[in-house]
Amino acid sequence: MLKLEITNNAFKFIQSLSPKQFKPIHMAIYDLMKNPEPNDSIPLKGYPDFFRKDIGEYRIIYRFDSESIYIELIGKRNDDEVYKQMRRLLS
Predict the structure, then answer these.
(1) Contact residues for 30 (Cβ-Cβ < 8 A; gap 6+)
(2) Strand pairing class (58-64; 47-55)
(3) 47: burial class by Cβ within 10 Å (0-12, 13-18, 19+)?
(4) Considering the entire predicted model, what is its pTM?
(5) pLDDT tens digits for 4-40?
(6) Into how many domains does the chain fold?
């Protein structure tokens, strides 16, 4: 199982969730630690090292290497704010 690294932004977002919203995201992150390339994970266009995983109304943006999975951002799926944050993060 990969080691988990999570950014402050993603951690703050997780803390703001209700227990009902938190549980599926927590389970998805745990599953990604076991298998960082599940069938429903999609590489991000324009960001070759990053992937996205959708969980209900939320989206997890992450990357990984042989030792760790890095949760960069978590946000609403139907909101471009996640991608705006991604551009700011990488610039």
Answers:
(1) none
(2) antiparallel
(3) middle
(4) 0.89
(5) 999 999 999 999 999 999 999 999 999 999 999 999 9
(6) 1
Q: What is the pLDDT of residue 2?
A: 95
* Residues of the chain by 3-state class (helix, strand, coil), percent to 5: 35, 35, 25
pLDDT at 62: 96
Strands 58-64 vs 3-6: parallel, antiparallel or unpaired = unpaired
Contact 17, 76 (CB under 8 A): no
Residues 6+ apart with CB under 8 A from 46: none
Please report, for the domain that includes residue 29, its CATH number.
3.30.2310.20
Task: For residue 62, give both structure tokens.
Answer: 């992450």
Residue with tokens 């998805």: 28
Chain position carrying tokens 């960069």? 72
Amino acid at 57: E
11/30 Cα distance (integer angstroms): 14
- For 19, the domain range is 3-90
